[in-house]
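Letters spell out the chain; the tokens describe the backbone. To illustrate:

===
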Amino acid sequence: MIKDSITLDADPEIFLEKVLDDINFVDQTLRILLEYLQENSRLISREIYIKDLSETETMFEQLIYDFLRHEGNISIREIPEIREKLLALQSYSMERQEIIESLGNSKDPETDSQVVSENELAELLKAF
């Protein structure tokens, strides 16, 4: 949606602030989701969430890249403060992507082991 909005032939005074707010919201959301995944190594379907977060982070990084180079009506070429902020967000996105990749590559021995041993499970199921 953000990518489509930067390509609109619209008044930049109306849409620029909204687009920047949306970009900041996505950045903050991705940061929070990454922190949550880092803190919860036993989360069910964690690998799927890591993969989804990685794909979303890649799309976000591409969005910023496109926005920095876009020459349409909603352009930031003439506003150095916004350009610097977007370059910083792009850098943060790349850093998060590296962390996400390390999460996907690292295996916690505790998460690979059974949560309940066979003996414990048999004991729990005796009543049935």
